[in-house]
Every structure is written in structure tokens, then in C-alpha cells.
Amino acid sequence: MTQALKGVRILDFTHVQSGPTCTQLLAWFGADVIKVERPGVGDITRGQLQDIPKVDSLYFTMLNHNKRSITLDTKNPTGKEVLTRLIEECDVLVENFGPGVLDRMGFPWEKIHAINPRMIVASIKGFGPGPYEDCKVYENVAQCTGGSASTTGFRDGVPLVTGAQIGDSGTGLHLALGIVAALFQRTMTGQGQKVTCAMQDGVLNLCRVKLRDQQRLDHGPLKEYSQYGEGVPFGDAVPRAANDSGGGQPGRILKCKGWESDPNAYIYFITQAPVWEPICDIIGEPTWKSDPDYATPAVRLPKLNAIFARIEQWTMTKTKFEAMEILNKYDIPCGPILSMKEIAEDQSLRATGTVVEVDHPTRGKYLSVGNPIKLSASPTDVVRSPLLGEHTEEVLRKVLNFSDEKLAAIKASGAIGQAPAAAAE
Ligand code: COA
């Protein structure tokens, strides 16, 4: 079976997490992703958070599957010649360098477009044009500037960042969509274009419901927020709402049996209006079904704390999995709080390829998250990440058609990592 992006060649200048997430997705859909790394150094994450000395870190391996790695010094004159040839042969250049790096390398958009008018140049930066456009950005900075941190956490606590990497991986996902859209447009125009995604914008897009609530505040209190029922007045900005549901159906995280010793013995419980009656029966409050103080969503809003406290009395008598089983019979939306250990051991996630075991030549076997996007006619086979420069010769010979002599000259120049003899002395 062929793959959706077969025939698309990506020149991958990404590093750390945001860009690599994007190019890994493209590789999983079948694109030939050629990752360009600095000779002798490589993507900085190869050596970060290492659990096994001198072995590519899980940080790196889990973000760079299905790619080829070449080493190339793009500041070396011969390296620039090789890069020019790569631009001619590839469809998309993806980068998440700091602001201005590509220009300083001598490859601004205008030059790339002149070399290969069909090339799409896709970039992630921390911020879009404006006062912060020159700033370097990492995950948590984006979470803070994109509206996530100010709306995450408890009302009386400090702003919180979330473990989900919405700034890095989230923006990588956004960029991948932009690239695929630009590739589609190219089939009609024959022209490449610039695709940019700022991490602040990507996070804000994921915090869309909070900008919704900011505007709703102009028209009165946010009645589905716990603080409404607690009688705490709202200020002029969307507050942190702890585990309140972000939607129109109130929800909370509730304790389950074993919570005293198990930090993850909890369930998320949503009191969706259409299943209010079965909820009342299950928790042992059948009169709430017709009681005018409880029967409609609107009258329940000021009493959510008391209602969830009553539901919790019931959930505390069940394990999170027992509660899930009982509630699902009545289509009551809920979900156990799963630890990473439980997810790693979940056989159904293994069966779908969402969690995969990968073998690596120096690390051995490890677990990774496979492709979460399933295409029925483009299956994903997760292939281990490349070693630094593993495919340099292969790419130079087979993609760029360089001869033995040309390859020897490039090696002698130091552009792919081997120091010239004179310099080595
Ligand atoms: N050959 C030669 N030089 C190379 C090279 C190669 N193959 N690859 C990179 N370099 C050089 C660049 O030219 C640059 O040099 P310069 O500053 O002299 O122009 C240098 O490496 C560093 O690039 P930079 O991207 O600024 O790295 P950094 O480690 O200083 O900063 C980030 C890291 C992530 C903060 C920064 O890249 C950034 O803000 N990226 C955009 C936002 C982003 O994606 N952030 C999240 C990352 S998960």
C-alpha cells in the first residue's frame, strides 16, 4: 500500500520539539524527511535528558521517527552549495530556528524562492510580527503568552502550565496542516509559498474557548464556573477555573475508591443534561429528577459544588474503572484519570499503534507514541530515529547524484563533518 505523502521530500531544519513534531507527522504520512543537523553536534535534544549515557535521548528518538539524518555545516561555503542543491531537490523546507537565523545563513525566502519556486518554506517562531517577533521561545513561554497559563490552575493559586505540550507539539501540528494545504495549493498554482505559525498563536487557537469566555464576561458572570456558585465575584479577565468543564456541560474531577493512597484514583464526571435522570438514579437521589430545584441545567448551576460533592460520595465507593463501566452503560460521559504507567501498559492503545514499541541500535527497545492520526489507505509504520549523520552519504549520492569525486571534495571541505586535513593538524 502506498502512503499519502509519498513522493514529497522535506528538507528538515527543525530542532528540539515543535518543528520535529511537524516533520515526524509528515514522515508518518510517507514524506521523505531529510533532517539536516550540525556536524558533530546534531539536534541538541540528542543529548538532553539522557537516561542512558552516550545514547540518543528519548526526547530525540520519540520526535524523530521515520526521518533520515544528514550532517551539514550550512555556514561552510561548500555546505551552502550542498544546501542549494538540496533546496532544488526538495518540496518543503521546514525550520524552527530562532528569528533571523535562516537569513543569517544566507538563505532568506527570496533566495530560496529563486532557487526553487515550487518550494514551500514552513516556519515556527515564538511570536508573529509585532513587538516580540525577535524573541526566542520555548514551550512554557508560549503557554504563558498564548492565554493558557492565566486560565489554568486554581483561582487562588499561581498560573499553571500544563503537561500537554500545546506550545511545541501543538504548533507543530498546526504547521503540518499548513504545509499540507500549501502542497495542495501548489498542485494548482505550481508555486511554493511561506507557511508560518507562531507558538503564541497556536496556543491561543487551542485556548479559543477562553477568549469566548472573556467576551461573555461583559454580559454577566460565567455561571458554569464554580466561583459563581460560591458567590465569588468575577474580575475583568477570565479566571482560572481549576477542573471546571470548559464547555456547556458542567464537569469535575472526583475522587474514586483508593484516592487516599493512589494519586490518580479520580474520574472526570460530566453532568450532561440529557443523562441527568440516570445520574440521579445511580447516585441515589431519584427525587432530584423532578425536584424543581434540580431538574433543569439552569437551576443546577448555582449548586454545582453541592451536586458534585453528592456525586463524589458515590464515586468514592467505586474504583475509577468500576465507575466508568457503570456510567458508560447509561451514556454518561466520564473518563478515568490515567497515569502514564497505565497508558504505557494499555493493550488497546498498543493494538491501534497509538503506543508502539520501537527497537533502536544503541538504546534497545523503548515505547513511543505512534501516529495519532489514522488514515485508512495510508498506514503508519513507525521506524526508529536516525543516528547523527546516518544518511549523509546516501542522500548526497542518491538524492543529489554526487559522484565519488564530488563526495570526496565535500568531505575534504569539512562541510559534512570531517575536518579538512590541514585543519585537523
Ligand atoms: N550548520 C551551521 N549552523 C547551524 C546549523 C547547521 N546545520 N543548524 C543551526 N545552525 C546555527 C544557526 O545558523 C544559528 O546560528 P546564528 O545564531 O549564528 O545565526 C545557531 O545554530 C542557533 O540557532 P537557534 O535556532 O537560534 O538555536 P538556539 O539554541 O539558540 O535557540 C530556540 C533555540 C528553540 C529557542 C530557537 O530556535 C527558537 O526560538 N525557535 C523558534 C521557536 C521554537 O520553535 N521554539 C520551540 C522549540 S521546541
TrEMBL record:
<comment type="similarity">
    <text>Belongs to the CoA-transferase III family. Frc subfamily.</text>
</comment>
<dbReference type="InterPro" id="IPR050483">
    <property type="entry name" value="CoA-transferase_III_domain"/>
</dbReference>
<feature type="binding site">
    <location>
        <begin position="72"/>
        <end position="75"/>
    </location>
    <ligand>
        <name>CoA</name>
    </ligand>
</feature>
<dbReference type="GO" id="GO:0033608">
    <property type="term" value="F:formyl-CoA transferase activity"/>
</dbReference>
<feature type="binding site">
    <location>
        <begin position="136"/>
        <end position="139"/>
    </location>
    <ligand>
        <name>CoA</name>
    </ligand>
</feature>
<dbReference type="Pfam" id="PF02515">
    <property type="entry name" value="CoA_transf_3"/>
</dbReference>
<dbReference type="InterPro" id="IPR017659">
    <property type="entry name" value="Formyl_CoA_transfer"/>
</dbReference>
<dbReference type="InterPro" id="IPR044855">
    <property type="entry name" value="CoA-Trfase_III_dom3_sf"/>
</dbReference>
<dbReference type="InterPro" id="IPR023606">
    <property type="entry name" value="CoA-Trfase_III_dom_1_sf"/>
</dbReference>
<comment type="subunit">
    <text>Homodimer.</text>
</comment>
<comment type="function">
    <text>Involved in the catabolism of oxalate and in the adapatation to low pH via the induction of the oxalate-dependent acid tolerance response (ATR). Catalyzes the transfer of the CoA moiety from formyl-CoA to oxalate.</text>
</comment>
<protein>
    <recommendedName>
        <fullName>Formyl-CoA:oxalate CoA-transferase</fullName>
        <ecNumber>2.8.3.16</ecNumber>
    </recommendedName>
</protein>
<feature type="binding site">
    <location>
        <begin position="17"/>
        <end position="18"/>
    </location>
    <ligand>
        <name>CoA</name>
    </ligand>
</feature>
<feature type="binding site">
    <location>
        <begin position="96"/>
        <end position="98"/>
    </location>
    <ligand>
        <name>CoA</name>
    </ligand>
</feature>
<comment type="pathway">
    <text>Metabolic intermediate degradation; oxalate degradation; CO(2) and formate from oxalate: step 1/2.</text>
</comment>
<dbReference type="GO" id="GO:0033611">
    <property type="term" value="P:oxalate catabolic process"/>
</dbReference>
<dbReference type="InterPro" id="IPR003673">
    <property type="entry name" value="CoA-Trfase_fam_III"/>
</dbReference>
<feature type="binding site">
    <location>
        <position position="38"/>
    </location>
    <ligand>
        <name>CoA</name>
    </ligand>
</feature>
<feature type="active site" description="Nucleophile">
    <location>
        <position position="168"/>
    </location>
</feature>
<keyword id="KW-0808">Transferase</keyword>
<feature type="binding site">
    <location>
        <position position="104"/>
    </location>
    <ligand>
        <name>CoA</name>
    </ligand>
</feature>
<feature type="binding site">
    <location>
        <begin position="247"/>
        <end position="249"/>
    </location>
    <ligand>
        <name>substrate</name>
    </ligand>
</feature>
